[in-house]
Amino acid sequence: MSDPALPEGVERHAFDSRERLATRGPPVYGEPTDGEWRAWDPSRSKLGAMLELGMDTGLAGGETVLYLGAASGTTVSHVADCCGPTYAVEFAARPARDLLSVAEPRGNLFPLLKDARRPATYAHVVEPVDVVVQDVATRGQADVAVRNARFLPEGGRLLLAVKARSEDVTADPDDVFDEVTETLSAAYEVLESRRLDRFHDDHLGVVARRR
Ligand code: SAM
């Protein structure tokens, strides 16, 4: 069944009579499938959790996307299923190898073995994008988002997952999230933020627009 709050190409689909978020594409991580549809597991994907929790991501489907922290492709595969050209940055060689097989049947998914802290190293490959999705889970998450704002036009979206413990294991997550929001303000206006704890402990989902 199509849901107007979800991007085109993302639906709530019944798998064994249980409705779950789903996209159409080849399976990647052992998720349930039904014909062309495959479940998008919010407990394996922060962007999936943001959609499941009803955050207004602004994603319509078909956008050009820069995805930072692609790992072995769990979430970025769903993004590529519903979006246009999808550039997937990952700096660790092992997951990047798995990402290559995920990209193989997806002609719009372009893996880049690059460090997201150094956008100048992929600026010659990545065209301006409509949306940056980020899930790097390392120290300096907000700074990475600010550095990559260069790829977005004014008003372009940032969909960010922040892991509090990656910034400071001892700090109160709410203090970490306040600091992250403050750092983001150098390049973005935060439109919505929500704790993702139902699916991911001590994570914040952020929807922001490029100033
Ligand atoms: N987004 C993935 C998903 O949902 O399928 C999971 C990402 S995992 C939490 C974080 C990933 O970000 C790791 O694979 C890590 O190697 C990568 N990463 C961390 N810092 C990075 C950086 N500076 N540049 C590129 N990748 C980075």
UniProtKB/TrEMBL annotation:
Quaternary structure, from the entry: Interacts with nop5. Component of box C/D small ribonucleoprotein (sRNP) particles that contain rpl7ae, FlpA and nop5, plus a guide RNA.
For the protein in the UniProt heading, the enzyme class is transferase
Q: Which UniProt keywords apply?
A: Methyltransferase, RNA-binding, rRNA processing, Transferase, tRNA processing
From the Swiss-Prot or TrEMBL record, give the protein name. Answer: Fibrillarin-like rRNA/tRNA 2'-O-methyltransferase
Q: Which Pfam families match?
A: Fibrillarin
Q: What does this protein do?
A: Involved in pre-rRNA and tRNA processing. Utilizes the methyl donor S-adenosyl-L-methionine to catalyze the site-specific 2'-hydroxyl methylation of ribose moieties in rRNA and tRNA. Site specificity is provided by a guide RNA that base pairs with the substrate. Methylation occurs at a characteristic distance from the sequence involved in base pairing with the guide RNA.
Per the UniProt entry, what is one GO biological process? box C/D sno(s)RNA 3'-end processing
Q: Name one GO molecular function term.
A: histone H2AQ104 methyltransferase activity
Q: Where is the composition biased (Basic and acidic residues)?
A: 9-22
Similarity remark: Belongs to the methyltransferase superfamily. Fibrillarin family.
Question: Could you tell me the EC number(s) of this protein?
Answer: 2.1.1.-
Q: Which InterPro entries does UniProt cross-reference here?
A: Fibrillarin, Fibrillarin_CS, SAM-dependent_MTases_sf
Q: Where is this region: Disordered?
A: 1-34
Residues noted as binding S-adenosyl-L-methionine in the record, renumbered to the chain: T74, T75, E90, F91, D115, A116, D135, V136, A137, T138
